[in-house]
What does this fold into?
Amino acid sequence: MVTEVVRISEIYDHFWNELEEEWTRKKREGRISTFIMLKGSKCAHCRYECNLEDSMVLPILRGGSAVIALVHNDCAANFLKNFTLKSERINLQLRQVLDEFWAEQYVKAAETKKNLGFLEVTLMFDYRCAHCSKAFKPGDYFGAVTLGAEGKEAFVFVVHKQCTGDFFSKINERNPLRFGGNDVAKIVAQNLPKFLSGKQKDEAAVRNAVVYLLKKEKLDPYVEQGAVAFGQTSFKPDITLERYSLAIELKYCKSKKDLSPITNDILSDIIAYKKDFKEILFLVYDPSKVIDKERFTKDIEKHSRGVQILVLDT
It folds into this structure.
């Protein structure tokens, strides 16, 4: 796109020096990211010598970049047309390279899913760097970055090689790809006691409070949905976080006589839920403080991978 036409009014050397100062200032002010000057006294299109009467300087802007060329007045239209066609041809070649690159990632995604135990591998198909958002240009070095955690969904991004380090750095602890049962346990442990303070505490109240806390954290909890079929029966978790392959089961311990049935329920739930979920979090509410937390949780967590038990007594 032509934004302005500058008539040559000074000799070439002085003119190019002044023009370079002007575009350097624009770059410094953030109006453009980079510029290229096709310096010289010959027309950038026909390559014949220019003179002051029949020539112009033609800035061509593409996104945040600029190309500044010297052309004859009657060559400007053809130069712009040829420049655009060449630019489109180069971009087309780059897009073909990227298409082939993404095609390779589709093939690798199946292997990644199988070898690393992901539930799903999603390709974030784009022609721009996932970190800096700049479109790739000819000569750019780029590569695929896979973000995920075993047993959960993984995502494949494409970034500039030089952006890879910063891209990983911007992934914070609340990245859903790494979020799991331990994080939910921390949220509940830190907030549930004060949230229930002064309120009636029964099983329904505890469940509703947990759902509220998870929604507040924008974790999209599902309540009593998605029954797990096992044998000739089915099991339905109290709360599920589908995106994180996490099942949450609440237990309410009123007295010591509840310890045995609660333990048996937890063991049977583990067997069933492991069929569809990678992680299971049991929230055991113990207002009477009859549970020895270490003894109650140690054996189950030790022999059940991906299972965590949080006992709350306040």
